[in-house]
Design a protein that fits this description.
This protein has helices at 6-23, 51-64, 69-78, 80-86, 122-135, 161-166; strands spanning 28-33, 38-43, 102-107, 110-118. With 169 residues, it is an alpha+beta fold. The protein has a four-stranded antiparallel sheet. It is globular, with a radius of gyration of 16 Å. It starts with 5 loop residues before the first helix and ends with a helix.
C-alpha cells in the first residue's frame, strides 16, 4: 500500500499555488492522505479567511468518498438527506462537500488522498486542481460506484440509484 508523502503533498501544494498565481487567484490548498488526515495546508496572501477550512473539507471529501467532489454532485442533489447525514457520522472529521475543487489523488490505481482548492470560482478551483494533478502524473479517471473495471462514462451519475430505488431499498 502506497502512502502520500509530505514531499509529494508539498509538490502538489506548490504547483497549485503557482497555477493559482498565474490565474491571479488568491486560494488556499489542502492535501490529505487516504484517511482524510491533513498532510499539508497553505493559505496564500490575500486568500479569504475561511478558504483553508473549505479546502480541507474538499480534500477530505475527495479522499474518504474516493471520488472527486464534482463526480458526487448529482448523487448529493438526488439524495440530500443522505449527504447531510454523512457529515454527522461519529467518524466524520469534516463536512462532506460535493463540489468543484475537490479531487481525489490516485496513482497506479490506488487512492492516496485528496486535494482541495478554495478561493476562486468553482470552475477555477476545479481547473487548478485538475491541471496540477494531471501535470504531476496522477490519474484522473474513476469508476462509478458498484461498477468494476473501466471508469464511468458519465461522471456525476449517482451510484446505482435507479436500481436500488426500484428494488425498494
Amino acid at each position: 500500500m502506497s502512502t502520500l508523502t509530505l514531499d509529494a503533498a508539498e509538490e502538489i501544494v506548490a504547483a497549485a499555488l503557482k497555477r493559482a498565481r498565474a490565474l491571479g487567484k488568491a486560494v488556499s490548498v489542502a492535501v490529505v492522505d487516504a484517511g482524510g488526515f491533513v498532510v499539508s495546508v497553505r493559505r496564500c496572501d490575500g486568500a479569504r479567511p475561511l478558504t483553508p477550512d473549505i479546502a480541507r473539507a474538499k480534500a477530505y471529501t475527495a479522499a474518504v468518498m474516493q471520488r472527486p467532489g464534482k463526480m458526487l454532485k448529482k448523487w448529493q442533489e438526488s439524495q440530500p438527506v443522505f449527504f447531510a447525514q454523512l457529515s454527522q457520522l461519529p467518524g466524520a472529521a469534516l463536512p462532506i462537500m460535493a463540489t468543484e475543487g475537490s479531487v481525489t489523488i490516485k496513482k497506479d490505481g490506488e487512492i492516496l488522498g485528496g486535494l482541495g482548492i478554495a478561493g476562486g470560482t468553482a470552475d477555477e478551483d476545479q481547473q487548478i486542481a485538475d491541471e496540477v494533478l494531471q501535470s504531476l502524473g496522477y490519474e484522473m479517471e474513476f469508476a462509478a460506484w458498484g461498477v468494476t473495471g473501466a471508469p464511468a462514462d458519465a461522471p456525476g451519475t449517482p451510484p446505482n440509484t435507479e436500481k436500488s430505488e426500484k428494488k425498494g431499498a
